[in-house]
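A quick aside before the break. I want you to see a complete sequence-to-structure record at least once, exactly as it would be stored in a machine-readable document. Don't worry about memorizing anything.
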Amino acid sequence: MEHLELFFKSIFIDNMVFAVFLGMCSYLAVSKKVATAVGLGAAVIFVLAITVPLNWLLDQYILQPGALSWLGAEYVDYDLSFLSFIMFIATIATMVQLVEIVVEKFSPSLYNSLGIFLPLIAVNCAILGGSLFMQSREIETLGLAFNYGVSSGIGWFLAILAIAAIREKIRYSNVPAPLRGLGITFIITGLMGIGFLSFGGMLTGGDEEAPKEETTAKVIKTKTEDKKELANHTKIVE
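That is the input. The structure line, written in tokens, reads:
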């Protein structure tokens, strides 16, 4: 259940685009066509699925205070957490370079359509945000870190795929001139963000039902107090 809850929460409730608005530059620039959006979204899923677990390992065994204890007792007091940003970005840049080489090799048309935004995945705040959120939320296991990376990537993928499909259809709509282009895109993104916020109560559940006798006693007590208050008020008025 922990894996399932984290999966759905990362996609719908803590969506990278609609909840924390990360990765908006690529989201807005590469969402004019569905085919291009699918390619970039798949690349983001792959990068997040690899970098979040790798950065989890780095954080657990190198960066955290006392993480180097596995090297010996003399390393227990070492704290390399100040290197988190550098190490995380280095891991992300390596994986993005690998993705760029693979895409250029097997799909030159997609590589040309993505243009500069494919190597810019390395500095996409959604990618770095995935690793930093993993660190701040203190995800406990490597499996949960992998789950979080994949589900966060899927959430970003769904966001850019949805806006790309809408932008393709909206070309045939009579949009007012001042709102054409990014104007209507921002409005649609805001409305979609409101829609995704409605998933916020999906995993919360209700409170445990109180015992029937206790509930009945509370109702009787409340009614008695209301009657006494009404009687006192009537006397004061008279």
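Two observations worth writing down. The radius of gyration is 26 Å. The chain has one domain: 2-203. We'll return to this after the break.
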